[in-house]
Amino acid sequence: MEEAACFQLAQRMTSLQPSATLAMAARAGAMKASGIDVIDLSVGEPDFPTPEHICQAGKAAISAGKTKYTPAAGTPALREAIANDYTRRSGLAVTPAQVIVSNGAKHSLHNVFTSVLNPGDEVIVPTPYWVSYAELIKLTGAIPVLVETSIEEDFKLQPNALKSAITPRTRMLLLCSPSNPTGVVYSREELVGIADIAIEADLSVVSDEIYDQLVFDGRESISFPTLRPGLESRSIVVAGVSKTYSMTGWRIGWTIGPPGLSKVMGSLQSQETSNPCSISQYAAIEALTGPQDCVTLMRNAFQLRRDLVVERLSQIPDVKIPDIGGAFYAFLDIHASLGRPHGPPDSVTWCEQLLEKEHVATVAGSAFGAEGHVRMSFAASEEKLTMGLDRIASFLSTIQ
Ligand code: PMP
Ligand code: GLU
Predict the structure, then answer these.
(1) If you placed Cys at 144, which of 60, 137, 209, 367 could pair as Cys (CB 3.0 to 4.6 Å)?
(2) Which pTM value belongs to this model?
(3) Residue range 324-349, pLDDT digits in tens
(4) Which atom of ligand 2 is nearest to the CA of 132?
(5) How far apart are CA 234 and CA 55, in angstroms?
(6) 48, 381 in Cβ contact below 8 A?
(7) Could you say which architecture CATH assigns to the domain 15-44+294-397?
(8) Using a 6 Å CB cutoff, which residues line ligand 1?
(9) 255 lines ligand 2 (CB under 6 A)
(10) Domain topology for 52-289
(11) Closest ligand 1 atom, CA of 106?
């Protein structure tokens, strides 16, 4: 059907790309539904069921009739549970008024960008970056300034690179540690170096800490605002239950930020979406205040899978990875296998061919602003990972 001219798209929508991670997951799902044995290592989604006690809390909420509107920014009980959990784990006291609960952390990021950014403002985004950052920033008319990092530096933003990217229009810095898509975790010293530059340049900092509880080998989980006194006045932490509690479908994420900005984000949400799902909010209270052994169990399982993936990838020629300290991603440098006479020319074609020939779904590095790489999620069983890695090795051996 040809659409009427009155539906000509708003200018800000003309360059909007769909989420490459979700697009690849949908494609793998469709192939599976048609009977093809696809190993899906595309989307970043824990493969564990949501822990039973959390599901029970959701069911109890329905039975108790908690199925009506709640305050737009979340119920007082959930905001308090989030504030208490954060204060306990980070050591930095925050109040429920600083917490805005949204329909997933993706929505929280939208709230932050919409509330703070003006057209033409610059936001520094280290690459590789999670797919949605650049698109959500561009929707506000602001400009994502992509700052490259390299595998030699474990894909971490270097202080000098940050300094050189700052202009009079820079308003914000976006950080993600543990990182999606690289799995690398910044050390305290590295973060302090960045924090000092942000303070000196008067930048706001959005710290995406959604993987904060998925750190391996006893690494510290560090929340950005705790690094220097007063940093909390210029920082917004983004987090949620999706990854820590395997609750991706429940859609609960949040921001912890200065009270004034939080109030504005609550108003935005009251106009755009009203409250996040009431039932999910009750489940999230149970997640945060109930037994936490499920978090340890899942973290340990991810660490074992990380070990398996690192071991297997180290045996495959032509692939390099950084030091994976958290989250559940391996970000493969595939430069060595690109551009051969009969091989794929770029990461998109590499992923296409891997899917077509070996039925393994991954996501092209170009979607994360890092051509020459491919992301594989290791949020899959050891059996699936072993099969997937066998197939990746077989695929690479055929590229001539
Ligand atoms: N930030 C990062 C880095 C992510 O990987 C994700 C995964 N979807 C999100 C935010 C958003 O998570 P959700 O909307 O499921 O809470
Ligand atoms: N964050 C996950 C990923 O990167 C989920 C998909 C998405 O939200 O884009 O795969």
Answers:
(1) 137
(2) 0.97
(3) 999 999 999 999 999 888 889 999 99
(4) 9
(5) 36
(6) no
(7) Alpha-Beta Complex (3.90)
(8) 44, 104-106, 130, 176, 180, 208, 210, 240, 242, 248, 253
(9) no
(10) Aspartate Aminotransferase; domain 2 (3.40.640)
(11) 14
